[in-house]
Amino acid sequence: MINSDSHSAAQIVLLFLKNPEKGRVKTRLAKSIGRDAAVRLYQSFVEDILSMLHRTDRPVIICFHPPWAEAAVIRWLTGNYRFRPQIGADLGERMANAFVHAFSEKYTQVLLMGTDVPGLPEDVIREAFDALRHRPAVLGPSTDGGYYLIGFNKRSFSPRCFRGIIWSTPTVLRQTVKKMPGQGRAFHILPEWRDIDDWEDLKDFVSRKDVLRAQAPSTFTCLASLGLLAPLA
To answer: Which Pfam families would you find in this protein's record (predicted)?
Structure first.
């Protein structure tokens, strides 16, 4: 359901995800738990994030990759979503193009986020949109040196924030901040969150299961079915 508030009517969340193919998702985690388990866990991440976004009452566009996987992604995900392929030569170009497309429509405040943060509270999304009423941009830093969310106002968006970035490195956030509007002096920083990319990340997540159980039920059900809810060594 879309909130009728005049601000929220112009807000959209772009959820960047991959078609859950074995050997194509959570590849670092798959080295520890196997490719089949990694796919199941990835799907549970997405289910929890979509449930969280639904509670914010903001519309969501599923931005999927690769572009030819549309039929498979639509079969996988059900709900009141729009689906759009990620278009571009690399991640930065795909994200920039997704923002450009959203701003070409009616939207003036756009958030883009990934799928590695099950358990992220919906208050973080609300904080991000609230910040964009007064700030040109917003960033959600992850503990690995990247970010789990980035957002812009239409008037302040610049594709240069995605150009020349060395992706999948501990300096992604730092590189991006240098390219943000006002060189980062005016944007809003959200609470730091830990992505689940590898075995150590999963261990940390499981150690906080009492806090996150209600926020990531699909992920915890999946972990239980995989025998991974006990403290991990």
So the answer is: DUF2064 (PF09837)
Residue 62 banded pLDDT, cuts 50, 70, 90: very high
CB 172 within 8 A of CB 165: yes
pLDDT in the model for residue 6: 53
- CA 172-44-232 angle, 5° bins: 80
Predicted pLDDT of residue 4: 43
Residue 151 pLDDT grade (very low, low, confident, very high; cuts 50, 70, 90): very high
Mean pLDDT to the nearest integer, 54-72? 96
pLDDT band at 1; cut points 50, 70, 90: very low
Cβ 159 vs Cβ 100: under 8 Å: yes
Asked whether the beta carbons of 131 and 188 are under 8 A apart, the reply is yes
